[in-house]
Amino acid sequence: MPPNLTGYYRFVSQENMDNYLRALDINVVLRKLVCLLKPDKEIIHTGDHMVIRTITSLRDYVMDFDLGVQFEEDLGPVDGRKCQTTVSWEGDQLVCEQLGEKRNRGWRHWLEGDQLHLRMTAEDEVCVQVFQKV
């Protein structure tokens, strides 16, 4: 049975965000700004339904979805694209596949103790973020 990810998580660290954003064709000014942000995550996990809020001082991004059901995700606030997105479990990891213009786009969330890990991919770039449960 997969873990319940419900909780509020504070930003701890990130690696390789600039190169990940470059792979998404984000301009240099926005890349520098995003790299300075320290986002928090709020996850509400109820059965097969999830809401993941990424909270920053600039703007929030909300994903509201049913597990295993493909939906059109509007990534306009991120990079101006739309993707066909499916989120499902692979063992204890929550895995998101975002099909669209960019190859190998998606992410994985998993818990290690009371830390939430996020691994984001686009093209050949990987960004890893870590959050601490509050």
From TrEMBL:
It comes from the Eukaryota. Gene3D superfamilies: 2.40.128.20. Signal peptide: none annotated. GO terms for molecular function: lipid binding. InterPro entries: Calycin (IPR012674), Fatty_acid-bd (IPR000463), ILBP (IPR031259). PANTHER family: FATTY ACID BINDING PROTEIN. Monomer. Belongs to the calycin superfamily. Fatty-acid binding protein (FABP) family. This is RET5 protein. It comes from Ploceus nigricollis. The gene is Rbp5.
